[in-house]
Design goal:
10 helices; 13 strands; single chain; Rossmann fold; alpha/beta; globular
Protein backbone atom coordinates (compact mmCIF):
# COMPACT_ATOMS: atom_id res chain seq x y z
CA UNK A 1 0.00 0.00 0.00
CA UNK A 2 2.82 2.36 0.93
CA UNK A 3 4.67 1.62 -2.31
CA UNK A 4 1.54 2.17 -4.40
CA UNK A 5 0.94 5.54 -2.75
CA UNK A 6 4.54 6.54 -3.41
CA UNK A 7 4.34 5.40 -7.03
CA UNK A 8 1.14 7.40 -7.58
CA UNK A 9 2.80 10.46 -6.05
CA UNK A 10 5.88 10.03 -8.24
CA UNK A 11 3.64 9.67 -11.31
CA UNK A 12 2.41 13.21 -10.72
CA UNK A 13 5.93 14.38 -11.67
CA UNK A 14 7.28 11.86 -14.17
CA UNK A 15 6.95 8.37 -15.65
CA UNK A 16 7.02 6.42 -12.39
CA UNK A 17 7.74 3.03 -14.02
CA UNK A 18 10.76 4.42 -15.86
CA UNK A 19 11.98 6.21 -12.72
CA UNK A 20 11.66 3.14 -10.50
CA UNK A 21 13.37 0.94 -13.08
CA UNK A 22 16.25 3.41 -13.26
CA UNK A 23 16.37 3.48 -9.45
CA UNK A 24 16.87 -0.27 -9.41
CA UNK A 25 19.59 -0.12 -12.07
CA UNK A 26 21.54 3.00 -11.21
CA UNK A 27 24.94 3.46 -12.78
CA UNK A 28 27.87 4.35 -10.57
CA UNK A 29 30.08 7.32 -11.35
CA UNK A 30 33.26 8.94 -10.12
CA UNK A 31 34.95 12.26 -10.76
CA UNK A 32 38.61 12.76 -11.60
CA UNK A 33 40.41 15.12 -9.20
CA UNK A 34 42.56 17.28 -11.49
CA UNK A 35 44.15 18.96 -8.47
CA UNK A 36 46.27 15.82 -8.15
CA UNK A 37 46.23 14.09 -11.52
CA UNK A 38 46.14 15.51 -15.04
CA UNK A 39 43.24 14.55 -17.30
CA UNK A 40 45.56 13.56 -20.17
CA UNK A 41 47.83 11.35 -18.06
CA UNK A 42 45.20 9.64 -15.88
CA UNK A 43 45.63 5.88 -15.99
CA UNK A 44 43.65 3.26 -14.11
CA UNK A 45 42.87 -0.46 -14.10
CA UNK A 46 39.30 0.37 -13.09
CA UNK A 47 36.92 -0.56 -15.90
CA UNK A 48 35.24 2.74 -16.73
CA UNK A 49 34.43 5.19 -19.51
CA UNK A 50 34.12 8.95 -19.75
CA UNK A 51 30.59 10.34 -19.76
CA UNK A 52 29.52 12.49 -22.73
CA UNK A 53 28.45 15.29 -20.38
CA UNK A 54 31.72 16.17 -18.62
CA UNK A 55 35.29 15.10 -19.35
CA UNK A 56 36.19 14.54 -15.70
CA UNK A 57 33.15 12.31 -14.99
CA UNK A 58 33.46 8.55 -15.47
CA UNK A 59 30.93 5.74 -15.47
CA UNK A 60 31.93 2.46 -13.82
CA UNK A 61 31.71 -0.64 -16.00
CA UNK A 62 32.32 -3.08 -13.16
CA UNK A 63 30.87 -3.61 -9.72
CA UNK A 64 33.53 -2.38 -7.31
CA UNK A 65 33.76 -0.23 -4.22
CA UNK A 66 35.51 2.95 -5.29
CA UNK A 67 36.44 3.76 -1.69
CA UNK A 68 38.67 0.68 -1.56
CA UNK A 69 40.78 1.48 -4.63
CA UNK A 70 44.30 2.92 -4.72
CA UNK A 71 43.04 5.73 -6.95
CA UNK A 72 40.65 6.78 -4.18
CA UNK A 73 43.28 6.61 -1.40
CA UNK A 74 45.69 8.66 -3.48
CA UNK A 75 43.03 11.33 -3.97
CA UNK A 76 42.94 10.92 -7.74
CA UNK A 77 39.22 10.14 -7.89
CA UNK A 78 36.05 10.86 -5.92
CA UNK A 79 32.87 8.70 -6.02
CA UNK A 80 29.99 11.00 -6.93
CA UNK A 81 26.69 10.69 -8.77
CA UNK A 82 26.52 12.35 -12.17
CA UNK A 83 23.78 14.89 -11.24
CA UNK A 84 25.81 15.88 -8.18
CA UNK A 85 28.87 16.47 -10.38
CA UNK A 86 26.84 18.57 -12.81
CA UNK A 87 25.39 20.63 -9.97
CA UNK A 88 28.71 22.43 -9.36
CA UNK A 89 29.06 23.07 -13.08
CA UNK A 90 25.77 24.99 -12.98
CA UNK A 91 27.37 27.47 -10.55
CA UNK A 92 30.70 27.33 -12.44
CA UNK A 93 33.00 29.04 -9.89
CA UNK A 94 36.31 30.39 -11.19
CA UNK A 95 39.65 31.29 -9.63
CA UNK A 96 38.46 34.89 -9.35
CA UNK A 97 35.43 34.06 -7.18
CA UNK A 98 34.73 34.25 -3.46
CA UNK A 99 32.54 31.18 -2.98
CA UNK A 100 30.37 29.83 -0.14
CA UNK A 101 29.16 26.24 0.11
CA UNK A 102 26.46 26.54 2.80
CA UNK A 103 26.04 22.84 3.59
CA UNK A 104 29.38 21.49 2.40
CA UNK A 105 29.71 18.10 4.14
CA UNK A 106 30.93 15.58 3.25
CA UNK A 107 32.62 17.61 0.53
CA UNK A 108 31.49 16.25 -2.84
CA UNK A 109 30.52 19.53 -4.48
CA UNK A 110 32.90 21.50 -2.26
CA UNK A 111 35.91 19.55 -3.52
CA UNK A 112 34.68 19.77 -7.10
CA UNK A 113 34.39 23.55 -6.83
CA UNK A 114 37.96 23.74 -5.50
CA UNK A 115 38.99 21.83 -8.60
CA UNK A 116 37.03 24.14 -10.92
CA UNK A 117 38.70 27.11 -9.18
CA UNK A 118 42.14 25.50 -9.70
CA UNK A 119 42.83 25.89 -5.98
CA UNK A 120 42.67 29.69 -6.33
CA UNK A 121 40.21 32.33 -5.19
CA UNK A 122 38.52 31.69 -1.84
CA UNK A 123 36.22 28.76 -1.07
CA UNK A 124 34.35 28.72 2.24
CA UNK A 125 32.94 25.36 3.30
CA UNK A 126 30.32 25.58 6.03
CA UNK A 127 28.31 23.04 7.96
CA UNK A 128 26.51 22.86 11.28
CA UNK A 129 27.79 19.75 13.09
CA UNK A 130 31.30 18.80 14.23
CA UNK A 131 31.08 15.28 12.80
CA UNK A 132 30.21 16.72 9.40
CA UNK A 133 33.12 19.15 9.56
CA UNK A 134 35.44 16.19 10.23
CA UNK A 135 34.31 14.58 6.97
CA UNK A 136 35.16 17.78 5.07
CA UNK A 137 38.66 17.90 6.59
CA UNK A 138 39.32 14.30 5.56
CA UNK A 139 38.52 15.13 1.94
CA UNK A 140 40.51 18.38 2.02
CA UNK A 141 43.64 16.46 3.02
CA UNK A 142 43.14 13.56 0.62
CA UNK A 143 42.24 15.71 -2.39
CA UNK A 144 44.88 18.44 -1.82
CA UNK A 145 42.47 21.37 -1.47
CA UNK A 146 44.38 24.56 -0.62
CA UNK A 147 42.06 27.53 -1.27
CA UNK A 148 39.54 26.84 1.48
CA UNK A 149 38.29 28.09 4.83
CA UNK A 150 36.05 25.90 7.00
CA UNK A 151 33.33 27.38 9.20
CA UNK A 152 30.67 25.92 11.46
CA UNK A 153 27.49 28.03 11.40
CA UNK A 154 23.78 27.34 11.34
CA UNK A 155 22.80 27.67 7.67
CA UNK A 156 19.53 29.32 8.67
CA UNK A 157 21.33 32.22 10.37
CA UNK A 158 24.71 32.59 8.65
CA UNK A 159 24.78 36.30 9.47
CA UNK A 160 26.92 37.17 6.45
CA UNK A 161 25.84 40.10 4.31
CA UNK A 162 26.89 40.65 0.69
CA UNK A 163 30.25 38.83 1.00
CA UNK A 164 30.31 36.19 -1.74
CA UNK A 165 30.28 36.31 -5.53
CA UNK A 166 28.85 32.79 -5.74
CA UNK A 167 26.93 30.61 -3.29
CA UNK A 168 25.93 26.95 -3.42
CA UNK A 169 23.08 25.73 -1.25
CA UNK A 170 22.66 21.99 -1.69
CA UNK A 171 19.92 21.92 0.90
CA UNK A 172 19.15 19.12 3.36
CA UNK A 173 16.10 17.35 1.97
CA UNK A 174 14.00 14.18 2.03
CA UNK A 175 16.40 12.59 -0.52
CA UNK A 176 13.56 10.93 -2.42
CA UNK A 177 15.75 10.92 -5.52
CA UNK A 178 18.62 9.05 -3.94
CA UNK A 179 17.62 5.40 -4.27
CA UNK A 180 15.05 2.60 -4.26
CA UNK A 181 14.46 2.94 -0.50
CA UNK A 182 12.62 6.22 -1.18
CA UNK A 183 9.24 4.49 -1.09
CA UNK A 184 9.83 3.45 2.54
CA UNK A 185 10.91 6.96 3.51
CA UNK A 186 8.26 8.87 1.58
CA UNK A 187 6.19 11.13 3.82
CA UNK A 188 4.52 14.28 2.37
CA UNK A 189 4.34 15.81 5.84
CA UNK A 190 8.12 15.49 6.18
CA UNK A 191 8.57 17.45 2.94
CA UNK A 192 6.40 20.26 4.28
CA UNK A 193 8.35 20.39 7.55
CA UNK A 194 11.81 20.34 6.01
CA UNK A 195 10.76 23.02 3.52
CA UNK A 196 10.51 25.46 6.42
CA UNK A 197 14.21 24.93 7.11
CA UNK A 198 15.08 25.11 3.41
CA UNK A 199 13.32 28.47 3.02
CA UNK A 200 15.21 29.94 5.96
CA UNK A 201 18.51 28.62 4.61
CA UNK A 202 17.83 30.09 1.18
CA UNK A 203 17.07 33.54 2.61
CA UNK A 204 20.27 33.37 4.68
CA UNK A 205 22.35 32.19 1.69
CA UNK A 206 20.92 34.89 -0.55
CA UNK A 207 21.75 37.55 2.04
CA UNK A 208 25.38 36.37 1.92
CA UNK A 209 25.52 37.00 -1.84
CA UNK A 210 26.93 40.20 -3.29
CA UNK A 211 24.75 42.19 -5.73
CA UNK A 212 25.37 40.75 -9.18
CA UNK A 213 26.32 37.40 -7.68
CA UNK A 214 24.85 33.98 -8.47
CA UNK A 215 23.40 31.27 -6.24
CA UNK A 216 22.60 27.65 -7.07
CA UNK A 217 19.96 25.89 -4.99
CA UNK A 218 19.70 22.12 -5.32
CA UNK A 219 18.18 19.04 -3.70
CA UNK A 220 18.11 15.31 -4.44
CA UNK A 221 14.33 15.09 -4.16
CA UNK A 222 11.24 15.66 -6.35
CA UNK A 223 8.77 17.19 -3.90
CA UNK A 224 7.65 20.59 -5.19
CA UNK A 225 7.38 21.75 -1.55
CA UNK A 226 11.18 21.40 -1.29
CA UNK A 227 12.00 22.75 -4.74
CA UNK A 228 9.87 25.18 -6.74
CA UNK A 229 7.93 26.28 -3.67
CA UNK A 230 11.15 27.17 -1.81
CA UNK A 231 12.43 29.19 -4.78
CA UNK A 232 9.06 30.86 -5.33
CA UNK A 233 8.97 31.93 -1.69
CA UNK A 234 12.28 33.78 -2.19
CA UNK A 235 11.19 35.37 -5.48
CA UNK A 236 7.92 36.59 -4.00
CA UNK A 237 9.60 38.21 -1.01
CA UNK A 238 12.91 39.49 -2.40
CA UNK A 239 12.63 41.76 -5.49
CA UNK A 240 16.35 41.45 -6.28
CA UNK A 241 16.14 37.65 -6.74
CA UNK A 242 15.74 36.51 -10.35
CA UNK A 243 15.90 33.05 -11.90
CA UNK A 244 18.71 32.55 -14.41
CA UNK A 245 19.03 30.08 -17.28
CA UNK A 246 21.10 26.95 -16.64
CA UNK A 247 23.13 26.17 -19.74
CA UNK A 248 24.14 22.55 -19.06
CA UNK A 249 23.44 20.31 -22.05
CA UNK A 250 22.09 17.28 -20.20
CA UNK A 251 18.84 15.29 -20.37
CA UNK A 252 16.34 16.86 -17.98
CA UNK A 253 12.80 18.12 -17.53
CA UNK A 254 11.95 21.75 -16.89
CA UNK A 255 10.75 22.86 -13.46
CA UNK A 256 7.04 23.00 -12.75
CA UNK A 257 5.40 25.90 -14.58
CA UNK A 258 2.61 25.92 -11.97
CA UNK A 259 4.76 28.51 -10.18
CA UNK A 260 5.25 30.65 -13.30
CA UNK A 261 6.76 30.28 -16.76
CA UNK A 262 10.18 31.39 -15.45
CA UNK A 263 10.44 28.06 -13.62
CA UNK A 264 11.17 26.46 -16.98
CA UNK A 265 14.67 27.75 -16.32
CA UNK A 266 15.08 25.25 -13.45
CA UNK A 267 16.13 21.63 -14.02
CA UNK A 268 14.43 18.48 -12.80
CA UNK A 269 16.70 15.51 -13.40
CA UNK A 270 14.85 12.22 -12.98
CA UNK A 271 16.59 8.83 -12.53
CA UNK A 272 15.81 7.75 -16.10
CA UNK A 273 17.50 10.88 -17.52
CA UNK A 274 21.03 9.89 -16.51
CA UNK A 275 20.49 6.43 -14.98
CA UNK A 276 21.48 8.05 -11.69
CA UNK A 277 19.87 9.76 -8.72
CA UNK A 278 17.19 12.42 -9.14
CA UNK A 279 18.03 16.10 -8.69
CA UNK A 280 16.55 19.59 -8.76
CA UNK A 281 18.73 22.58 -9.72
CA UNK A 282 17.85 26.28 -9.78
CA UNK A 283 20.15 29.22 -10.51
CA UNK A 284 19.39 32.66 -9.07
CA UNK A 285 21.02 36.02 -9.67
CA UNK A 286 21.02 38.87 -7.15
CA UNK A 287 20.24 42.22 -8.73
CA UNK A 288 21.40 45.61 -7.53
CA UNK A 289 19.81 46.63 -4.25
Amino acid sequence: MEENAYKNWLASYTDSDAALDAFANQKQFFRLNTLKVDQDTFETDIKCKQTPYYDSAYELEEDIQIGKTWEYFLGHIYPQSLPSILDSLALNPTEKDFVLDVAAAPGSKFSHMAMLMKNKGVLVGNDYKKEKISAIYANINRLNILNCIITMRDGKILDWKRRFTKVLLDAPCTALGSGPSAARRWDPVHSQKIAVTQKKMLFSAFDALKPGGELVYSTCTYAKEENEEVIDNLLQNVPTAKLEDITLEIPHSSGLSDYGTEFRKTYRIYPQDLQSEGFFIAKIRKGEE
